[in-house]
Every structure is written in structure tokens, then in C-alpha cells.
## 1
Amino acid sequence: MKLANNNQQDEYIAFLKQIRKERQGKTSNFAKLLFTVVLGLFLAVICVIIIENTILIDKLMVENADTSGGFFKFSRSKKDFQVPFSPKRQNILVLGVDSNGEGADIWEGTRSDTIMVVNVDPKTRTIKAISIPRDSKVFLADNKGVSKINSAHAIGGVNLVKKTLKETFGIKIDHYIIVHDDAVEHIVDALGGIPIYVEKPMKYHDWAGHLHIDLNKGNTVLNGKQAVGYLRYRKDGLGDIGRTQRQQWFMRSFFEKMKSPEIITKIPEILNICKTYIKTDLSFYELSQYAGFIKGVDENKIEIATLPGAPNQKGYISYWILDPQKTQEVIDRMIYRDKVEADFSRFKAGIMYSPLKEKEAMLIQDQLKELGFEVHTLKITHLSHTRFVANKNEVNIDFYNWLQKKMPELNKVQFVYDPTENFSVGSDFTIVLAEG
């Protein structure tokens, strides 16, 4: 659905203004925070490893004690790590920025190709992450006009991004992590590659932009350059949304790799890369606190969503026009943690599966029917990544965790909230069974 006519455009503009009005002056309960997702996730995991190896703590603190500005601020006092974690819900902004040309400052004037807001609730040990499509059409703060949201960082840095998110969506950002594209390449190579399932052949060459992508379908281990190509690829008919989904799949593979025992030997090299290519307003102490939290988070308590909308072309500029009602729904659910009570016994289930997963799909269908659910099935030739999709707001993480107890095969299957009903199949929730 395109929001191309005047009435739809007017509705979108009214939506943005209404959010500003409703949220203006409203005090947020969000305090200091951190959860490093996608390209920033490894920072906290590194902290866990460091904290669990006291000899390495001493060595790193001595070597990095003079670090200043925009990155780790090391403390020499080990007892500082005993301060308890904040019990309040918290937000963090994660930005992935591109290159601004050879020889240019890596932070000034760079656009943000990855924009994520992560909401962490230490009390319930749950995490909700929103991906914001880079082409989303918004009103930039400080009277900078209407533009794509990814231009905010290029025009006014992280402060303009934070202001725009607050004024447009009512989302208060307390801290941030900015990761340069080059960090991905260097860190992935330092780790020896990231295993991932490439859901389709990806071929693209941009000689002017020095971007060359040549990936075949199937399970593979991406090196640094390949990882950057995988994350930036958008020539698959899904455009920015396809890229956003790949960032989310990459996040999971990256997280698993960072938990492997051999990572301990890679820490010094990774920290050196971080100092050059990662910028954050968080201290080492704050990172360590969040690292301890992340270590105890159950993967089944993580929920992700992308702000819903539709593509729209205006002249030579392509925008992602946010759907007013559904975007507000996502924000209320993921950031403000609004809950909608529902009788889950009345939920309708859907199963979408690739041909190689037909036997598994039929078994899951039988299980769902035994639990009393009406089930619709649909065979699809091309599907990317297995996941559980909540199509309706009433389908929450509590229901998903209950279903996992009844169906253990859903354990660690990624939970996605998608109110666009692209995966609806006439259902309230959909189980997608793909080859990867």
C-alpha cells in the first residue's frame, strides 16, 4: 500500500504533529542505559569476557587509563563494578554510519544506514528493539525541514538524531553508540568471519562507491568485506526493509560468535579497532553493567520490530512513508510497553514454509491443532530465515513463551512483531519455516 494521494500524505503529517503534541512535556521514566544491538552488540559482550578474566582487566585498565573523549573511560577501581544495575526501563540509540569519502572525517557529515532504538527492562529481563528504515520521511528537529531520517546525523550529528526521535516519535534517548562501516569489516575479520545463511544470491557492483557484493545462496562464513556487502545489499525488491531484516539476522549470528570461548584471545585487537571506529558517550563502567545484564538475558525474551510503512517515490527521491496507526502501535508496544489483553485461545495460527520444510510444517500444524488453534498453511518458494511473527498486537512475548513450553522446537526462534500483516495468512501469528 502506498501513501501517495493527498489525503494519505495529510494523515501522515497529522500523525507526526499529533505525536509531538501528545508527548510534549511528558516526562520519561527512562534512565541511563545500554544494550548494544547489531553492530554495537559486541561491546558489552567484550566487557563480560574482560570482567570474568581479572588479569586481563588489570592489563587493559593500565594500558587504556589515558583514553579520553568519545570512547571508554577506564576506572582503576575494581570495587566500582559492584554498583547495582538501574531497575528502570532504559533506551539506547545504535547508529551505523557510512563513509563520507576517502580522507574525510569518519564522523562528520556521515549518514546513518542503520538506526535502531533498543528498550531494556532490567526488572523483567526483556529487550525490545525497533529498526527505523533509513529512508523514513520525517520532520527533522531544529527546523531542518522534511527529509529522510538518515540525513539527520549528516546534518546535525547524533544530537539532531536524538532530538528528531523525541519530537517525532516521543522516544527519549539517553545514550548512544555509533559504529562506522569500517568497524564491521575489521572486527569480522578479527573474529575469523561470521557464519550466516544467505537467503538468496546477492550480486551488485558500485564502482564509484567501492561496494562490490558477490554472495551465493546458502550457509557461509562471511569475511569482513562480505559482511559489509550483506548488510548493505538492497537490490532484492525489498529495498531498505530487506536490508533492515538482514541487519537483524546478522545481529543474532554476531552475538553467538561473540559468546564463543576463543574470543578471549581477540579482545586486544578488537579494542584497538573499537577506539578508532566506534563512538559512544558511555564509560567502561556503564558498559560493564550492561554486559552483566546481557549475559543473563534469555534469547526468547528479545522482541524486534521495524517501523511499518510503504515505499513512495517523489521525483528522484525514494521515501519510506510510515503508516500512522501501525507506527504508533509499534512505539507504544516496544517503547512504552503497553499491553493489550486478549484470549489467546481464540488466536488463529499461520504457517509459511519453504518446500524443504514441508514435513516439519505438517508436524507443527498437527501440534497447533492439538492445542486448539485454527491453522492456515501456505507454501512459499523463497523465504528468508525461520522466525515467529506476531501479526496482531494482542500476540505478546508471554504468549510466545507459553507456546515454546508446549512446542520446544520453537525455542530460540526469533520473535518478530510485524503489524503490516505481510505474513498474516489470515492469522494472528505466523510461524515462518525457512531453509536458513
## 2
Amino acid sequence: MKIPITQSKAWAKLQQDLSETSFLEQGSGYHYLAILKSTPVGNYLYLPYGPVFETKSGLENALKSLHNLAERHQAIFTRVEPQSREFVDHLPSNARKSPDLSPAETWTLDLTGSDEDLKSKLPSRLLRYYKSAPSKGITIRESHNPEDIHYLLDLQKALAREKGISTFSEDYLKTELSQPFATLYLVEQEGVIAAGLVFDDKNTRYNLQGAQSAAGRKLHATGILTIQLILDAKKKGLKSFDFWGIAPEGAGPDHPWAGFTNFKKTFAGHEVTYSGTYDLVYDAHKYRLYQGLRKFNRLIRR
């Protein structure tokens, strides 16, 4: 089975470092990492891009195991988002569609083949910017120092104020960067003008988070950085580059990810569609209370 990084032992270690309670389980035809979450209404389990299974029987075994786990920890529902589209074909009767947490669609770039093959998949315009970057005093460096995470966070906060979106806390991002699979990239020209946080497993580089300043935007810093991320992933021997999320097929220009999606699709990759996020409801009454509280909290944040 292909285990996504968010269902791996490494991700379980991240949860431990974040003081989260998680359960890594493997059985006949399935594998999952479930994280126990608490709300004023009750507990629930969350499986980022899980469970992992290959057959219908593997899915059934996973759902039985999750039900038993939920009972032991008094969870009112389990939030799943299997990457396998087969889940949608075999939806259990207690499944309810939930707003997607992890992206249900993403754009991936194949890194196998020759260096020339890879370069042919990269936008020529961005390659020109990348090659001319040193002449403009632009440098890129890697960091594994959690204290450097403030560079990314400062840029994200500026973007959040502009777009009206939320960011992760500094402690959360520091904990992520302290993991062996994480690398922070910093693009500099008289200061940091762009930053990106990537995660690597044995096959894939995941381009999870990034931001740039107004000066970086004028210098195409994100494009230059993305080229560097891809070339370094290839050099490392990884097989694919996951851009981590695009707007759904048919989404219009008003979609909040429209700009990001247009940028990512300038790379000659291909779209991958997952099943999306679903809640497996065990206590319908408490689940309705949870949903009402969730809507109320969203209204307050707006």
C-alpha cells in the first residue's frame, strides 16, 4: 500500500510532539493513523488522507476497526478522507459529506526520467527568472532551524491580512520544521522575500506552505523558489512533486485558489483527485450539535 506522509509513522511522531493523541493501526488490507480531537460537544477521530486500503474488504476491515476505536474513546464521529476514489463507490450508510480539510484535488509532477525531460516540463518563463536570479542578487538557502520559521510566518500573516485567511501558530510551524522530513527554503534579496516549507517522504516532495512579500512578487520569487524545490527534489532521487492542492475542476475565477491553481498548472504535471472529506457518524444527536457549533464558530471568525 502507498502510505501518504500524513498517515505515516513520521506523522505520528509529529502528533506526539504536538501533544496530540493518535493511534497508528494496521490490519488485514488496511492502514491508518487516527488523531483524537476534542470539542465542547464530544470527541472525534480525524484521519488526514486516511484510511489507506486497496480492496473493498480492506476498507470494510478499516471501518470496523475505526468504529471500535471510536467506541473506546467515546467519539461521536470519525472524519476520514481516503485518497482512494473507491471509497466514494462504497460509502457506508453513516457517511456524511463534510467540507474538505486536506485538498481533494492536487497537481503532481513526475520527476522520473532524465534531467532534460524534467526541464521540458518546467515553464520556460520561470526558468529564465530562475537562471537570472543570481545576477539580481537573489539567493536561496535551506534551513532546518525551527527559529527561522518566523520568516515564513511573517509573510503568511501579511497575506492573511490581505486575503482574510488564517495561519498556523508559530509553535505549530516550529514543531513541523523540527521533524526530519521538513525543510524550510528562504529566498533572499536584502532580506527574505519568499519562503516555503516542504515535506519529503521516500518518494514525494510535498509543497505544503509558502508566501512571498510585495517585493518578492515583483521579482517572481515564488516561481524561482518552486523551480529550486523541484530541481532539489529530483537531485534527491524523489519520484514526484506534489503541489498540494488546486481548485476543483470547473471552478471559476472567483474561487480562492484560482490564482494558485493557474500557477501550478503552468507546470506540465497532471491532476490527481481524491475522495474528499467525509464524517462517519455514530451519534446523530451530538453530531448535529457539533455541526451547529462549527457553523457558529465560522460566522464569528468572519
## 3
Amino acid sequence: MKMPLILTLLIAGALIAGIQSPTQANTALPFLTESGEIAKGREMHEEMMKKGARYDDEELQAYVQQVGERLAAISERPHLDWTFTVIDDENINAYALPGGFIYINRGLLAYMENESQLAAVLGHEIGHVTAHHAGRQQTANVTNKLFQVVALLATRNYDVANTANLLGTGLVRGYGRDHELEADRLGAVYLHTMGYDTDALIDVIGILKNQETHAKLKAKEAGRKTGSYHGVFATHPRNDARLRTVVNAAKELGESPPSDVNPSIFRSHIEGLPWGRRTRPPQRQEDRFYHNKLNFTFAHPTDWKVDPGSKAITATEPEGKAQVKISILRREKDVEPRDFLTKHMDAKRLLRSEPLNQFRLQGHTGVTHPRDGDEQRLAVLYYGSLAYLFEATTDNAASYDEYDAAMFDLIQSFRPMKAGERGSTKEGPSISFIQAEEGMTFAKLARRSRAGRDAENQLRLINGYYPSGEPKPGEWIKIVK
């Protein structure tokens, strides 16, 4: 019997709480070997992927994987099979699972300005893994954080996580200042070693601190409470002496290789990134007809033509040898489907008469008697307050037996649309880059932005200009279009 995901993660939380840290070998008993840690992390990773958490942009995924691999290769645990995944979630979040599985939400990527900031987030999360921070927490604490991750993925309750922790959230959320600073120290070393700007670590935490400040102001205006994104820095990160110390220490490790990062590469991967909650495209099959307004669908032979007319819907065989016509009427109270069918289709006698019960829809079908005219299949299905009448005919009596099975299959495939089939074909708002012009302000950009009601502040936040300041001419800035 397959173990439920939540139970799996809760047990995993209890197990990984016993992993030893290389720097604190006597603080916990090693209940889980490294191979066990990797296996448990992979199991949780696969469960997340089954739930469709992965963002479907292969070029962006490959880019993030490449940046992460370069950092992990010079970490204390380069032998791990590191996996870096962009999650299709608009919330500001990044987290790690044991064994080298690192995640970053697309919502967080929207606030980043360059590859150094991306590397800063990934480096910090790598630091949590290499320092075995999960194993240095009490079982109850880690288990609780694991539960929060699962709850968010399962319920998609973003109100709870709207200002989620940037560095060390989810599994490693709430590690405390010492562990967060240790991850910062390790991340800064990785950045320096690879030639990235170590101040990017401070910058990216500062950007998210601005987001937290803004969220708290909005929450106060609305009379509700909101949480802290990190819980470590009471003041702005740029003013935190301990953070400055660990970042500056990395700069003293020796000469850093020259940076060869092309800023346009980062922009090219963020261009077109969905903004906010994404409207997923409908998941539909080519051999089905979908009626968005009335929320129904039916299957048809792939070569048949479906004409959604104003008075009726018809599905026709390519040479016109067979046709199914669907008409829509109001249901009549307390009238059984068979009586409704014989009344409205003027069918005095029905052969092969039988009730229909499909996809929780009640109906009836039968074939008219040849003496009453051309043989044809009739059917009715009740769906909501409407009755769907089917009239399946052929061009001549000889063709009826040849096509009756296909026409009956069409009738029996009629059902309400599923949630994934509804979706939307409209493009949602997305991130785009432009170069600022003389006199351009965020207030002006907000007037034609799709960033929502609070567009000006959101544009400031994603461009690092919160709460004030205006873009400089020639500067690349993000807009939401």
C-alpha cells in the first residue's frame, strides 16, 4: 500500500532530524545515512513533481540548473546529484529538501535583477544542505515545517504564505539566526569563489525585506495580520552587522575570478515569466468538442466535422453519410427522460429502448421503428436545468448499421467538462524588460500595467526602487504587460 504524501514527509522529518552536521558531530545521533537522506529527498521530490509543481519552461529550468550546479560543484558536498527546480508558484519562496534538492518559485524570480542574485539564493539553500541544518533541528520543529510545505502544495492556500520566507523557507524555515547566518556565510563563499558579487546576497535579502515591509503596510490597511519573510533580520539587512561580517569575510578569501556573466542572458530567461497566479491553458483532446459556456464536451471520430451552430450542434461524417444533431431544450419538472424524448422527438415507438446513466447524467435512448420513417437513433440527457436531445441519422437506410455504433459512442461520451479542460486560452500578465526613457516614472508605467491595483508599488518592488526613486534613462527595468 502506498504511503500518503503527508505521512511520508512527517516520517521523513523525524528521520532527518537525526542527521549529523560536519561541524557539530556530537549534537545528534545519525539515524539516517547519506544514502538514506538522498533516497528520502528524492522520494519527496518525485511526489512534488507528480503534483505538477514544476514550471514548464525547459530553457529556464536548464539555466537555473546550470547556475546551481556550478555553485554546488565547489561546495562541501559536490558528490551529491544536485537538482535545482523552478516551481510554478507566484509566491516569494525558495527551499531545500535533504539530499541536494533545491527549489525556487517563479514568483521569487520576478523580483531578481541579475544572475548574481539568483546565485545568492541558490547558494544559500546549498549552504543549508551542506551544513545539514535539517538534522540539527529538533524533530518536532522540522516535522512541522515539512507539514507546512505539504499543506501549501496540497491546498494552494497562498494567503498563509503570501509573505513567505525568502532564504530558508519551507523545509528549512525558522532555523534561527545562527543557522541562517551560517547558510549566508557558505553562500557568500560560493559566490566569491565563482566570481559573483557577494553583495548580491545582501541585495536580494533587502529586496525581499522591502516586499515584507510593503505587505505589512497593506495588511495593516486591511486590518489583518501578516508574517515575517525571514524572522532573522529585525532591521533592514543592509544595516545588519553580522550579515555584513559574513559577506565581507568571503571577500578576504583571496582573489575572485573575473565575472563573465552577460546580464542579457538573465533577462532573456525572465522575459515572459508569468506574473501572479497563472491561468493554466486548458488540457484538451483533439477528438473532443468543448462548449465553454455550457460546460460540456463529447468525443467524435477525428475526421468528423463539428459545427457549433446557434440553434443546434452537428457532428458530420466527412462525406455526409452520417450526422449527429444536438438540440438544447429546458427540462420539464417531474418528466422522465423517456417521456421527454418521445414527446419532443415525436417518437411513437422506440426499439432498443434503454435508460442512460453516464457521468452522473440521467437520460434515455432508443431507435425509431422503420415503419415510422427512416431509422435513426434518438437520445436525451439531462444536465442541470437543460435537456440535450440527440438525433443520429444517416443518408440512407443501408448506412445506418455501419454508423450506429460510432454515433452511439458519441452520445455516450457526452459529459460535463473537467476542471483542467476549462482553463483559459487568454494570455495572462507577464514580465517584460524595457529600457527607461527620459521622464519615465513608475506612476506612469503603472497606468498601463497589468500588475494589479497596487501596480506602482509592485513595479517599484520588482525593480528595487521601493519605496521611492525613479528609473534612470537607459536602465533596463521590468514591467508587467
## 4
Amino acid sequence: MRYLLNVVYLLTLVFYAPWLIVGLVRHGKYREGFAAKLWGHVPKRVGHDTCFWLHAVSVGEVNLLGPIIRRLEQQHPLWTCVISTTTMTGYRTARQKYAPRTVFYCPLDFSWAVRRAMRRMRPDLLVLTELELWPNLIFTADRLGVPVAVINGRMSDRSFRGYRRIRWFMVGLLRRIDLIAVQSDSYRDRFLALGAPPENVHVTGSIKFDGAQIDRDNPLTRHLMQLANIEDDDMVFLAGSTQHPEESLALKTFQTLAAEFPCLRLILVPRHPERFDAVAAELEESAMDFQRRSQLGRGQSPAASARILLVDGMGELDAWWGTARIAFVGGSLTDRGGQNMIEPAAYGAAVSFGPHTKNFEDVVSMMLQAQAAEVVHDGDQLTDFVRKCLENPTYAEGLGRRARDLVLHHRGAADRTCMLLSRMVD
């Protein structure tokens, strides 16, 4: 089976080669970690202490690991946590957040690459986040006697329908996973329907509730507010993790309301760093005064008229959410499937997002049921939502209060997950 998978992966690489080359030339993507990805040449671990290999795909999953790493190291100070990731932004975020721990690119799912990586890292447990079901990685861990766990597991209806077509294969794969800790009952049922052993599937809740910051007065948020000259009575409208054309829609909303509401500020945080310059060019074309995050703190303060800030850096979005009174969570008016709306909810912001949120379907369901968020379907509805929050502060405060209460109510998944992981090694 592993040889067949290798052939499929190689054919896929050949098919997507033109797009990969474009990403490499234009944006520098895929250049880093070449030896680790293709040959499994990851850092060679020395020593014989117990080692947890935690794998996260990109920024969202990397941030998710924070509560897990803290708890594991507090409970087991002699254990070592190493972190792998797939994307360049995920790798850089992990290096920033988790240094001096070992951070590396996870090998692509070729049998030779994952086998070499396993032998160099020698983990005692392989922990995959959410839905990272790479067959060769899991089969290799099983052959080497390394237990495998999936944490914060989720499976959208679309993924479930796809996996169900190859259920004959999924049964064998899922039976090699020793722990599947899922976010909800509906996700548990989907894993069970695909053949996961019932005794290995546990509902722990979403770890993202545990990792969310709830204190607006945290040092980093306060520091950023000072850098950007944001006053406590400013009404910050933050559009975060955005994709094209969501920045344009947020900017149009601001242009429509700025004259009527002088306290309104706009902060744009694009999801992908390669789009920072494009968004900056669009802001320049609008003739609106704006500031780039990269220009702050260099001996110059933002112009008094600059009510728009473009955050053109990685790793700070969580803290920037703490400045927002009104929030739009991006990737939800496109086919991306939505981004993490728990972070602005935890701060008590009035949260909105588009209708395409399959990546967070259970969280969205809970928020809408609790009247803790609003769905906007286009730019006009986004403008209407922001206007309503500005004209009716009681409405905005109520949304934010219910959102924050929801986050507080659902904490505890990290503790339950770490208890299950510890049992596997003990």
C-alpha cells in the first residue's frame, strides 16, 4: 500500500508542479525545509527522554498547541515536546511562540521521508491536530511501535462524504490510531461511521476555547494599542484572517461610516503575508490615510488622521483582536471555510462572519444558538452590522457578553486531552 501511495503523491506533485513553481518564484513558498519535506531530514534528537511529536499544519493549529504544551510540560517536566508544521507561516509562528523547543517541517507523506524522520526524531508519541490523517506517517508510526493520537479532532460533512467513498481504506487507517479526541458528538459519530474503534474515540471539546485570551488588558494588547495610538473610547472595527475580496468590503464599510462616526477605526489583518503589499496598494488607491504595522515603533507615531491600520506581520492577530469592539472573521465570505472566531469572542467583541464556515461548524452553531454572533452574506450586510453596533452600543455589548460567556463555559478541553495523552505514555 505504501508504494501505491508514493505513486499517487508523485503524480499529484507532477500535476500541481506549475502552481508550485509559481508560488516558489513569486512568493518564496515551498523553498524552506526542502530536505525535511522530501527526504525526512529533520533534526536528529539526542538523549533518551520521553518525546512528544506534536504536528500542526498552519498558524491556527500551531496556536492551538499552546495550552497542550504548557500543561504537558507542567505535569511532566522531564518530557520533551517537539513541533512540526507544514506551511511557512506555521513554521515561523511556531518558532516565534515555542522557542527554544525544536521546530521543523513535517515530511511529505512519502514512505521514505516519514520513515527517516521517525528514526531521527524517535518520538514516544505522535500527536496530530484536527484532521491530519496522513496514511504513510500513521502506518510508519504503527510499524515502529509509536502510538498515534489525533487531538481536537474534527470532520466536516464534506470530508466525511469523501472519506466514506474509501471506507474500506479508512477502517484500516483509523484502527492504527490509538486515540481520537474530538470536539463534539457529531464529529465522534462521523469517525465511528468510518470504522474507528469506539473505545479509542473520546469527546473532549475544542481546545481553541482554552487557548483564547480573555483579558483585554494583557500586556501585548496594551502595547499594540499604544503603538497604534488607539484610545479606550475608540470603536475599533477589525477584519482578521481576511482573503480577497474581504479587505475591500471592510474598507468600503469604513468609508461609508467614517464621516458619521469619528470614533471608528479600521484594522485589517490579511490571512496570508504574500498579500500584504497588494492590500497596501489597494489602500493607497482609496486615498484614505493608513499606517502599516511594520512602520510602528520606529521613532515615528501614526499620523493623527490615519484611522486605518494594515497589520503586515505574523503572530499578533490574537492580541490585535483584543483592541476590537466590532469583529469580522475572514475566510467566510469566500470558499476558505472560515477562520477562528473564538479569539474575538473571548474578548467580548461583537462578532460577525460570512456564511462559509464549514471549518468551525460546531462553534458557529453554538454561537448562533446563543445569539453571540451575526452572519453577514455580503458587503452591504457587513456595513449594516457595523452601523448597528455603532448606533446601538447595547446591542453590540450584548453580543460580546454572550460570546465571552460561551467561551468561558466551554473551557476544559485541554485538561481532558492532556489527561488522555499522559495515560498513553504512562
